[in-house]
Amino acid sequence: MALLQPTYEANEHLLREMIAVGEDIIDSKDLDLIRENANLNGESFSGKMSKLGSEYAKWYAKHFIMPKSVVRAIEDNYVYVHDLDQYAIGTTNCIFIPFDKLLGGGFNTGNGSVRPPNSIMTAMALVAIIFQSQQNAQYGGVSASKIDHDLAPYVAKSFSKYFRKGLAYFEEEDGVQPEDIRMSNFELQLRYPKSYRYALKETEIETLQGAESLIHNLNTMSSRAGGQIPFTSINYGTCTSPEGQMVIDALLTTTMQGLGSGETPIFPIQIFKCKQGVNQSPKDPNYALFLKAAECSAKRLYPNFANLDAPLNLQYYNPSDPDSEFATMGCRTRVLSDRFGRNKLSGKGNLSFNTLNLVKLGIEYGTALGKRKKADEQGFYHALDHYLDIALDGLLHRFDIQRRQKAKASDFMMREGVWEGGEQLAPDEPVGDLLKHGSLSLGFIGVAECMKALYGRHHGEDEQVYGKALQLISYMRAYCDRKSDELDLNITLFATPAEGLSGKFTKRDRQYYGSLPGITDREYYTNSFHIPVYYEIQAARKIELEARFHDLCNAGAISYIELNGNARSNPAAFLSIVQYALSQQVSYFSINHPIDRCSACGYEGIIGSICPSCGSHEEDVHIRRLRRVTGYLTGDFQTRFNSAKQAEVRDRVKHTP
Amino acid sequence: MNLCGYYPESINEGEGLRASIFISGCRHRCKGCFSPATWNFNYGEPFTLQRQNEIISEIAGNPLLSGISLLGGDPFFSAAEVGSFLDRLYEQAGEVNTWIYTGYTYEELTADPLAAEYALLRRCHVLVDGRFEETLRDTSLRYCGSSNQRLIDIPASLASGQVVLWQPAITF
Ligand code: SF4
């Protein structure tokens, strides 16, 4: 332990800290602590249990494990180390799961082995099991980068099964070769019309049922520590085989139908991958599915839209390898490129990320405090370098701990080869160099407030300041690229999805500097490089301004447009906004719009104080108000969000009223 | 002519993203009208030439708009002035797809081809017509409030001499 010769006073102090941490959690005293993560019910028993564990783990890491400079930077509110509770034990962040490999070869969950599935129904059920098996081996998201491609072979298996049944039922002449039984074989359709039709219909039904059970499973299995639902993402949209199209169609249909009583599913995060020539214009094979995705998103907030044609993503695109198609994880993570050649998604992920508080640096070196007339840019960049170095040191120190972990610590992830190459390790072997394919990311928050603090205006208000903001983010990206080369590691720049963080930095900066207008006077800092949610700006303009940052953030970024009004009833508007964002090279995009649900009659749409369908008043019946925060949905924003995020939702200016 | 509301981008008053412009003044006095305050011709701010030009340049500079919507009040009570606003808009931004909401019916508006109302109608593309009938109120309707109201394709109707209903470009 690092505490040399602890004094009696120091020990006393540590003890008091420990006791306070426990009391806050057990008595649900600190609501923001309890609600730090909107996906976790921190007031439940299991939520408290996991909070206790994680708060002590953080405390331990800070006092006994981490480099002092990093702890100092955290305490001074310049740097945030995400998922600090996992630091000391060396867990990694997130992963793209190679579902094709696991389903095709069978796998072992640790409690039993699973054979390759023979039908789409079973395959979909196994997808849920694989997600579940993987999620506790890490702390971030679990993602399927190409679920349509991964599941298509099992649709084919089901089709073949039903077709053979059909031949027997309808006594249609047999003599078909097994390899000829394919959905796309039109001869089959001509020669055995009844069997073909029967098989097609049954396969469709089975795929839909499979998709239904998958979505239900992913919304109900509270199997993650603290009673959380696994943080799952599924990407799809580019598989053009009839089997793959059937998978996509079934997932969208199910999502639109909603859960048990028709409510909007919270998980998985769904991402539709948009690619010209595949699904972007009426002559493209999957165009109808793209329209359906837009419809689904207008009803259910998902899917989001990934832009395979954005330059950042297009450079890795290989039409014959769907694993080279940009996909995302969790709220926005991007791990496509790898300096060691694995320029694809499955079998790796992000290792960890640290976020810089740009606002505090802006306040220190800008005009906001009235200490100077002109921003001290030199001082700012000097300090930025200093904290970039410290944040990177933290990542590297943590990486070292991660590398020393034994394969058996994440048995499913390593021994089953969810992380590529892990299957070759012996249980006691450290994961070591295998992790180098993952990314270490430096994130940032509050470009808007930082600009305001430096120059008095933010990057949405002023053309020149916009240039400064772009310069800042380019500078950080160049730093990451330079360090990648120096250290021979994948160091990437992240537009941090700051959920728990958005209020924390702000609260402490306000305590220190007071309430500075447009800077610390709200309860949160603006996410990454976004134009502030409270700033009135046209949708197209917001898209154009934010688009240029996407190309710089190679660890991931997302842009949103807020719509007020019932997006469901205006598909044309929805579609034109999505396609405009894609055309502006936004890498990852989504539209936020309010979905309210009346618990008396089940009406979903926009509900003021009175339900337009049944006339119930919000004081008499519960109106569930679904909102998106940092990339994923949360049951009811008034009961599950922390106060900073509630404030952000309140402040959102709808880009269309 | 007064302006009682302006949303530079809206998804609620017509297909696509539209600039919605609300003109003060209405004499229909429908029971259950959503905003009786707008009946008054002096309500809101004067829709001066300067304000008109501001709005026109916003519309011309917004690549995401599918068009505009004119509402009120009832813009047909200021038909001549609204007509010249449209002329100015089309001159500067090209012919912009225009939806117009009214308490009059299509038949009433086409009764006199020499009237200012007819001239305004001719410049627009979709007419949402008819008074708001409280007993026919239906929240599930797209782009209108009560089921007696129609969404009419103006050019097609004028060309064929009978009411042709508007059809959406994309349906989900
Ligand atoms: S026409 Fe429209 S504004 Fe006029 S009274 Fe009727 S509902 Fe109100």
TrEMBL record, chain A:
SUPFAM superfamilies per the UniProt record, alphabetical: PFL-like glycyl radical enzymes
GO cellular component terms, A-Z: anaerobic ribonucleoside-triphosphate reductase complex
Gene Ontology BP term (one): DNA replication
Stored Pfam families: NRDD
GO terms of molecular function: ribonucleoside-diphosphate reductase activity, thioredoxin disulfide as acceptor; ribonucleoside-triphosphate reductase (thioredoxin) activity
InterPro entries, per the entry: NrdD (IPR012833)
Lineage: superkingdom: Bacteria
Coiled coil: none
Protein name per UniProt: Anaerobic ribonucleoside-triphosphate reductase
Organism: Paenibacillus yonginensis
High-level lineage: Bacteria, Bacillati, Bacillota, Bacilli, Bacillales
From TrEMBL, chain B:
Listed name of the protein: Anaerobic ribonucleoside-triphosphate reductase-activating protein
Cross-referenced PANTHER family: ANAEROBIC RIBONUCLEOSIDE-TRIPHOSPHATE REDUCTASE-ACTIVATING PROTEIN (PTHR30352:SF2), PYRUVATE FORMATE-LYASE-ACTIVATING ENZYME (PTHR30352)
Gene3D superfamilies noted in UniProt: Aldolase class I (3.20.20.70)
Keyword annotations of the record: 4Fe-4S, Iron, Iron-sulfur, Metal-binding, Oxidoreductase, S-adenosyl-L-methionine
Known role: Activation of anaerobic ribonucleoside-triphosphate reductase under anaerobic conditions by generation of an organic free radical, using S-adenosylmethionine and reduced flavodoxin as cosubstrates to produce 5'-deoxy-adenosine.
NCBIfam families xref list: NrdG
Cofactor(s) in the UniProt record: [4Fe-4S] cluster
Enzyme Commission number: 1.97.1.-
CDD domains xrefs: Radical_SAM
SUPFAM superfamilies for the chain: Radical SAM enzymes
Enzyme class: oxidoreductase
Family: Belongs to the organic radical-activating enzymes family.
Pfam families in the cross-refs: Fer4_12
An MF annotation (GO) of this entry: [formate-C-acetyltransferase]-activating enzyme activity
